[in-house]
Specification:
heterodimer; A: alpha/beta; 6-stranded mixed beta sheet; 4-stranded antiparallel beta sheet; 11 helices; elongated; B: alpha/beta; 5-stranded mixed beta sheet; 15 helices; 7% strand
């Protein structure tokens, strides 16, 4: 288990991390969310000792993270980059070796990953000869080459086409299923909701919401009602006491209501006996939780 | 992973990838070509017959001159080397003639040779030629008498060389060639390999691979591995160049080297290692401060200036190895790598000065490595605009 414990870091006037804490369990995937500039990259870098923290500690299985622990971590930084002129096979072998593998092990792993990503025939090509999408694949292989027990990925889905997104999701799922702890940052909240069991939402250097996605949803003080009907007055709905907000997209009303509130006036207004074609009553989506957490 | 393993991995990559790159192979070829050109071009373009006028005083001169002419004109050689002997009544008269450039040198009693200055191409070649002539005369007389050690003669300098511009200038010509040649090589090597460090560090930062590397390595391991790897390549090339230059000198006889100057060579290698380490560390730290190659020139300007200053002070030391400036700069680490080997070539540096200079140098390299490691870490992950050195220093912990 990776644990970030009250991390603080100040860059001049800017407080990048303000007692930021969260944990990533083995066998699970955690989505690390937050608006731009919230401190995501700084927090992820601190796992690899790339940031000299003002305060706080990072531990792996209860022990402070040092160089030997980091050998079992895989990292995909936000700023992608490998050696452009180095042949990809040799490059991956080198990256395996710097994570403690022998030359033979690393060479075999490089071949295996290139095979898996459909790049076997490019093994002797320098990185710069590959297309953008294939370079991204090599970058992923670079983070996976040594079968890391922990994977930290900074915006792994940005810049990927739908096929790339699919490959990435599958591989990350497989890593988590085989017992690795996976944490990645993203702005694509739907994808996080789809992939991750846990989330941590960071805002202004502080984790403002975190935990299991399902639990967070259940613990939310709101319900979401989605209803599709011919009539329906958005104005009147939003004036009701139990209603927090109403969105109407031309087809459906999305109504956020307070838990435990009296919904009878709402129900009478919805005219459920009429021509309702769709009605759902559910917990809020991750997007709504995110907005709630960040906007306050 | 031990630090040594980490350093070795970085080092291995540098050596393998660089020695395979076209740019490196071209640079090696160019260096060797330059050395060869310097050594062999005078021979190739020596299309004129050579004429020397030598003033002679006393007896036993003609035998030396005849032997020298015979040696200079082996059968089958088209160009002729002529040495004309001009008799003088006294040493003074002959030296006056030499000073007035009426003759190229003066031979006295077949034992001593006087030339105008310490350096000078014609003087050097003439001295070399006469030395060989004198050796041959000695061997002949030895064979005739059937005694003595031939080897001693072969490796000795039978004629005493004196220069009109400096009384103690025996062997000054050869020494200044070694000192000057060594200095040039040292200067070129330190700047060439130093700038490879700079571009290597900037490159890793520019293509962002550095963040992946730093996730596994400590910054100082990355810097040390890079410096050692490029340094190893540089050292091989440097030693290779020096050896080829010395062998070439012996083969072509451009300069008369009585014995293989193994000490001077070891001294050059030592100072190459020290000088390279210091400049490499500084270049490495500078490289971490910039994100683009275009910005690199700005940050290295002060470092290059220091090297240039060291080079010019060392040139001054060639003619003045014991001046106050030469002595003082022996103890200043950035200039010491250039000045100290020059003074050593002239045997103008006491052992204690050399020891103190080396010790100061080692100390500086150690301190600079720590400081540079800190700047390196602080600068590496700041992309975009150039990072100030103070800013980089503060944002990283020692």
């Amino acid at each position: 288990m990776l644990e970030l414990n009250r991390l603080s870091k100040r860059y001049g006037e800017v407080l990048a991390l303000d007692e930021c804490s969260f944990r990533v369990e083995r066998g699970r995937m955690l989505g690390f969310l937050g608006p731009n500039g919230a401190g995501k990259t700084t927090a992820m870098r601190s796992v690899f000792n790339l940031v000299s923290l003002d305060d706080g500690s990072v531990t792996w299985r209860g022990r402070p993270v040092g160089q030997s622990e980091r050998l079992h971590f895989g990292y995909m930084p936000e700023q992608r980059g490998l050696y452009p002129k180095m042949k990809i096979g040799r490059q991956l072998t080198y990256l395996g070796r710097i994570h403690g593998m022998t030359n033979t092990e690393a060479g075999a792993a490089a071949e295996r990953w290139l095979e898996e990503l459909g790049l076997s025939d490019r093994i002797a090509d320098p990185l710069e000869k590959l297309s953008h999408g294939n370079q991204q694949r090599v970058q992923l292989a670079a983070a996976l080459i040594h079968d890391p027990e922990l994977m930290v990925l900074d915006e792994p889905f940005s810049g990927l086409d739908p096929f790339g997104v699919e490959t990435m999701s599958e591989i990350l799922r497989a890593r988590a299923a085989s017992g690795a702890a996976v944490v990645f940052s993203s702005h694509q909240l739907d994808m996080v909701e789809d992939l991750c069991q846990d989330v941590a939402i960071i805002h202004q250097g502080r984790v403002v919401m975190g935990g299991e996605v399902r639990r967070l949803k259940m613990d939310s003080p709101y319900w979401v009602i989605e209803v599709e009907m011919r009539t329906g007055d958005t104005e009147r709905l939003s004036r009701l006491d139990s209603v927090v907000s109403v969105d109407f997209d031309g087809y459906r009303h999305r109504i956020v209501v307070r838990k435990g509130g009296d919904l009878s006036d709402l129900v009478s207004l919805l005219d459920l006996g009429g021509d309702v074609r769709h009605f759902t009553f559910s917990a809020p989506s991750l997007s709504e939780l995110f907005r709630e957490a960040v906007m306050g | 992973m031990t630090s040594w393993r980490a350093i070795r991995l970085v080092m291995g990559r540098e050596v393998r990838e660089r020695s395979r790159s076209g740019a490196f192979i071209v640079s090696v070829a160019i260096t060797l070509l330059l050395v060869a050109a310097v050594l062999f071009l005078p021979l190739i373009f020596a299309d004129d017959d050579v004429y020397y006028g030598v003033g002679v005083v006393g007896d036993g001169n003609q035998a030396v001159i005849d032997a020298a002419v015979a040696l200079a004109n082996p059968p089958g050689r088209e160009l002729r080397t002529t040495i004309e002997a001009v008799s003088f009544a006294s040493r003074e008269a002959a030296e006056r003639a030499a000073d007035a450039e009426e003759v190229d040198g003066v031979l006295m009693d077949g034992r001593e040779i006087v030339v105008r200055g310490a350096g000078g191409e014609a003087g050097g070649a003439l001295v070399s030629l006469l030395q060989r002539g004198a050796r041959s005369v000695q061997i002949e007389s030895l064979v005739a008498s059937g005694a003595g050690e031939v080897v001693d003669i072969l490796t000795s300098q039978p004629l005493e060389v004196r220069s009109l511009s400096g009384a103690d200038a025996e062997e000054n010509n050869e020494r200044s060639v070694i000192a000057f040649g060594g200095l040039m090589l040292l200067y070129m090597a330190v700047l060439l390999y130093g700038s490879l460090i700079l571009s290597g560090v900037t490159e890793e930062k520019t293509n962002r691979v550095v963040e992946v590397l730093l996730a596994a390595f400590e910054p100082w391991q990355l810097l040390a591995g890079k410096i050692l790897g490029i340094g190893l390549l540089g050292l091989c090339q440097f030693v290779g160049t020096v050896v080829i230059a010395l062998v070439g000198i012996n083969l072509t006889g451009v300069v008369d080297l009585p014995e293989f100057p193994i000490e001077s060579m070891l001294m050059l290698v030592l100072w190459f290692i020290l000088g390279y380490s210091l400049f490499a560390v500084m270049f490495g730290a500078a490289g971490a401060l910039v994100s683009r190659a275009e910005d690199a020139q700005t940050v290295v300007a002060p470092i290059s200036l220091v090297a240039v200053a060291g080079f010019f002070i060392a040139i001054q030391a060639v003619s003045n190895p014991t001046s106050t400036l030469s002595v003082v700069t022996t103890f200043i680490p950035p200039t010491a790598p250039f000045v100290a080997p020059v003074r050593f070539a002239f045997q103008a540096i006491p052992l204690w000065q050399m020891a103190v200079s080396v010790a100061l140098m080692v100390l500086t390299v150690v301190v600079m490595t720590r400081l540079a490691g800190r700047v390196y870490l602080g600068g590496l992950l700041r992309f975009g605009s150039r990072v100030g050195i103070r800013e980089a220093f503060r944002s990283a912990e020692l």
